[in-house]
Amino acid sequence: VSKPKRSFYYAAVSTAASVLGGIVGWLIGFALWAAVKGFFFGYVPGFTPENFEYVRGLYKDNAFLAICAAAFTPIPYKVFTTAAGVFDISLWTLIVASVLGRAGRFFSVATLIYFVGPKVKTLIDKYFELATILFFVLLVLGFLAIKFFAS
To answer: Exposed/middle/buried for 95, CB within 10 Å: 0-12, 13-18, 19+?
Structure first.
């Protein structure tokens, strides 16, 4: 915030680091699941192979959108990246969705800081999370409307 002219640089670094962190989360989910799934199936009430496969199917059907939404909005991104590893989501799907979502989030903040300056910090702190959720909901509704009216 104190260096608005460097905001895009910071957004690029933040995007790269966050996507790398997402890849680490995916690796943790992918590698660790094999070691701990017996515990979950054996000791966590309601956690059955059937329920797991049902959730895996839902996640796989919507993985790109789910990861992108978590990367852009205040939804816990790390939960979705780890789940992507657990559910065997393609690493490329994770990377592309993460780059789009994280870059969208960080570069939108960078743009505000670049053009408005440090005084926008209060506005970002107060309203940015709500704005990202509303924007993403409107985006999804727009895609659904196009799909519905195109049919």
So the answer is: middle
Measure the CA–CA gap between 146 and 133, rounded to whole angstroms. 20
Task: Give strand ranges (E) for the chain.
Answer: none
**CB burial class (10 A; 0-12, 13-18, 19+) of residue 141?**
exposed
| pLDDT tens digit sequence for 56-87 | 998 998 899 899 989 988 888 999 999 999 99
Task: Please work out, in degrees rounded to the nearest 5, the angle formed at the alpha carbon of residue 120 by the alpha carbons of 114 and 121.
Answer: 105
Burial class (CB in 10 A: 0-12, 13-18, 19+), 28: middle
Count Cβ atoms below 10 Å from residue 13 Cβ, excluding itself: 12
Summarize the confidence of residues 8-36 as an average pLDDT: 95
Helix 63-72 and helix 77-86: axis angle, to 10°? 160
DSSP H stretches of helix in 44-120: 49-61, 63-72, 77-86, 91-116
* pLDDT digits 0-9 by tens, 77-135: 999 999 999 999 999 999 999 999 999 999 998 998 899 887 777 777 787 788 778 87
Closest CA to 22 of 84, 110, 75: 84
